[in-house]
């Protein structure tokens, strides 16, 4: 039986200064959602999120989840960068996330993720798939990590165990299925295209 649940992304902005907000609406499978895009600037992090609200019959709204569209964390030259985008195809809502590094940051993620949800008529979301490819740090920063076997073939069972442990850790942290080889190349290509489409749409506003 498929699990039905509301999306809840872990984005806590309790001490964040929100200095700009814009609203829009989106209708999926006969359900109307209100979307609020908010900019924030907190300590060494700045960016933008979109929060989805379910619109009630009496005009009230309840917050469902937030999703990061832009984030830059770090110093002036060394930053961890996150970019996001989403699109709708029929009753399917797809989220794309791209992680990359700027400067000499060595402990920030690099990679991408695609999550697909079916929007049900009652306003709930059913997870269809979640695929990801993530390097949690630079290749040279931790020679003992099983991540190194993403770039070189495991030579024995010990190496294979290290790689499996790394994959399991990433899948648990980022909530998705790790993909390799051609699949990871295709995933990254789709994520970059989605980010590019989103940026073009922003420029046309």
Describe the structure.
With 205 residues, this protein is of the alpha+beta class. It has one domain (4-203). Helix content is 20%, strand content 47%. The protein contains two helices and ten strands, in the order βββββββββαβα. It has helices spanning 157-174, 181-203, and strands at 4-5, 17-28, 31-42, 45-55, 61-74, 79-89, 92-102, 110-119, 125-135, 177-178. Strands 1, 2, 3, 4, 5, 6, 7, 8, 9 and 10 form a ten-stranded mixed β-sheet that branches. A hairpin with a 2-residue loop joins β6 and β7 (92-102). The longest helix has 23 residues, at 181-203.
Which descriptors would you attach to this protein?
2 helices, 205 residues, 20% helix, ten-stranded mixed sheet, disordered N terminus, globular, alpha+beta
Query: How would you describe the oligomerization state of the chains in this entry?
Result: single chain
State the shape: globular
Mean pLDDT: 87
Uncertain regions spanning at least 5 consecutive residues? 1-18
Terminal CA distance: 42 Å
Structural category: alpha+beta
Give the helix tally: 2
Number of strands: 10
Our Rg estimate from Cα atoms comes to 19 Å
Kindly give the count of domains.
1
* Percentage beta strand: over 45%
Return the string of H and E elements: EEEEEEEEEHEH
